[in-house]
Amino acid sequence: QPTLEAQKAATPNQDHPWTIAHGFYMNMGGLALFIPPDLPESEQFVPSWACGTWFITQLALAILLNMDRDRMPSLTEEEIKSKSKANGLAKALVCTQAIWFLTTCVTRCT
Questions:
Q1: Phi/psi at 33 (5° precision)
Q2: Model pTM greater than 0.85?
Q3: What is the 8-class DSSP label of residue 46?
């Protein structure tokens, strides 16, 4: 049966409302649907050549919602935010570099 990667760790019957963080996560390619190649014909909803991992877009999400709401991932906003690869130090360094870049640009223009 096709599964969303985010559902692997989700417990059944646990429903979390979607927030703007969920929308950004989906738009950035955070949700993927894995369709196994050995799926029985009765459960196939895509052609056999389309098996594999597919990233969920807005259109794919709408199609999945119309087909079966149980296939939707049950992610909390905290789980999404925990996947951030940047810690406070990395963000501070980027801000410092940006300020330094803008400062040098302004001084060169004057």
A1: -110, 125
A2: no
A3: S
